[in-house]
Amino acid sequence: MTKEQERARARRRHEEQQKTAKPPVSDSTRDKQVFGVILAVILVIAAVIAVPKLVGGSDTPAPAAGGATTPATSTAGTSAAGKGGLQAGQKLAAGCTAPPPLQATPKKQTQVPAKATAAGKTFVATVKTTCGDITLELDGVKAPQTVASFINLAKTGYWAPSPCHRITTEGIFVLQCGDPTGTGQGGPGYGFGIENAPKDGKYAKGVLAMARTQDPNSNGGQFFITYKETQLPTDGGGYTIFGKVTKGLDIVEKIAANKALPPSPQDGTPVSPISILSVSVTEKKA
């Protein structure tokens, strides 16, 4: 075979191989493939970032134990109990009746009652609630301004009716009442300072004390009852103790046993609603 014939045969083999080979990737197709890879990487990164948010990360604060959450800072939202009837998840405790609606227009005042009306005296208050009567002894000797205000609000029907909008069951142990709006943000229209706050921040079981904001002069109409010994912060001066429960603490304990509504069963609107229907006060004779 001549060299010319060998070259011709080699040329034919090459042509046959070219017919069965895959066509080369064009520039436009290659660009699309690269873009697809980049897009896939972006989607994977986005998914990794989004997952913690979808499943609930650790950025949602939870009430802290040991008094970090105080009766002063409750903003639990409008109590369903104050709207009348029960909301989803609520149930009446034994011996309780359905709560009445909120006051259409809560009463407001501007003048702080004179503390001289209570100074040096002791009083007995009967708080009628949808779960029974709670009897309080008010100490006008140690907390005359607070007791004078309490008596004034009772006589004017400020709390008739009003829900106890907050129960706490971890770290601190209180039932908070006294806001006719049921939001934890309502007040009578005036404020006054702190009296008779324990320097060590310890509040015995059955103590009656005032709730307030961070402002030490924001005492008004909201108060709380401790159903277990409770340690509270002393920052800002603490919380005024102005009396104690002498009868009916078992009612508070019963409400506390059912805790608060989700998402925070340790601090919020009580599962078992309780509302104040009226408050009467008489001076205790020696």
TrEMBL record:
Parts forming coiled coils: none
EC number(s) reported in the record: 5.2.1.8
Annotated InterPro entries: Cyclophilin-like_dom_sf, Cyclophilin-type_PPIase_dom, Cyclophilin_A-like
Matching PROSITE patterns: CSA_PPIASE_2
UniProt biased composition (Low complexity): 61-81
Origin: domain of life: Bacteria
Residue stretches spanning the membrane: 34-55
Residue span(s) of domain PPIase cyclophilin-type: 132-281
Gene3D superfamilies per record: Cyclophilin-like
Keyword flag Heme: no
Keyword list, A-Z: Isomerase, Membrane, Rotamase, Transmembrane, Transmembrane helix
Compositionally biased tracts (Basic and acidic residues): 1-19
Biological role stated in the UniProt entry: PPIases accelerate the folding of proteins. It catalyzes the cis-trans isomerization of proline imidic peptide bonds in oligopeptides.
Name of this chain's protein: Peptidyl-prolyl cis-trans isomerase
Species name: Terrabacter terrae
